[in-house]
Amino acid sequence: xxxxxxxxxxxxxxxxxxxxxxxxxxxxxxxxxxxxxxxxxxxxxxxxxxxxxxxxxxxxxxxxxxxxxxxxxxxxxxxxxxxxxxxxxxxxxxxxxxxxxxxxxxxxxxxxxxxxxxxxxxxxxxxxxxxxxxxxxxxxxxxxxxxxxxxxxxxxxxxxxxxxxxxxxxxxxxxxxxxxxxxxxxxxxxxxxxxxxxxxxxxxxxxxxxxxxxxxxxxxxxxxxxxxxxxxxxxxxxxxxxxxxxxxxxxxxxxxxxxxxxxxxxxxxxxxxxxxxxxxxxxxxxxxxxxxxxxxxxxxxxxxxxxxxxxxxxxxxxxxxxxxxxxxxxxxxxxxxxxxxxxxxxxxxxxxxxxxxxxxxxxxxxxxxxxxxxxxxxxxxxxx
Length: 384
Known about the structure:
alpha/beta; 8-stranded parallel sheet
């Protein structure tokens, strides 16, 4: 039942680590696929394991609506219900406070939602969120928080982070399962002083891990990078750091440089369903006619099933005819691409060559010149 995190190698602020959970150990830095409704869209558990997925996310709000946490608990929690026996992480429902802003009312007690399915009123409080997550049985559970949109008024950001801290205290008091690790979430928008306050107050709770929340919600990268840098400076070195909702490859490379250990995002699978494949140079539009006669794989360096067995021409045919297989294969490739990116990052940190790795990535991603936000992130991290 042990939950333990150890830093193994470090270069500048970038680091590799080992995170132990009741359902297995994982190497960090790590990208975690999003399985909002207890499934990563279009992919089987076997495929997830084969491509290197090690922690899968599920969402408290959506699973509360259907199939219901009681049913999931009766059927063995997320592990037994889904058949995926690796580590799970459940979001608290805090992101829906922002994404369903037109369907909710916030009070000190919690958030009253109007269900997006049938309009029923649902009250999600810190206590209810933790109770649902305990029924779902994830290895890592998140404290209930308020995720403000960007931009937000400073006064709202301040009151929001203060409420999130009070909700963290209530989340911790409601927790009963010793086999689940509760992570706190910092907020404060892109205001450095508010971020500092939120982070320092959150780490007072001495939790097994911490998340940086409220970013990748529309703010420019030039504003996101300093917040991540400040946050990892303040967060404890011996605890995992989780940057929520971030999944663009360039953001992962910069985030790892700044000392982040865990990432998640719907970006790779959603992008795949839109017909795009991720490569170091950016994205390939496989709905474009330019690839109709291309015999090359998506990425010659990739070992995923799609790249080992199919050409860009065939995948373009599948996308353009709206065959489900094409969207599945692109989702599979995109997740494998991000897992490989993190494998390459870990190897570079272990070899003390993360600076060379990041420069090589930047040269391929931006042949006409690296953007200032990216080089600035690597400079801040001491690896540029």
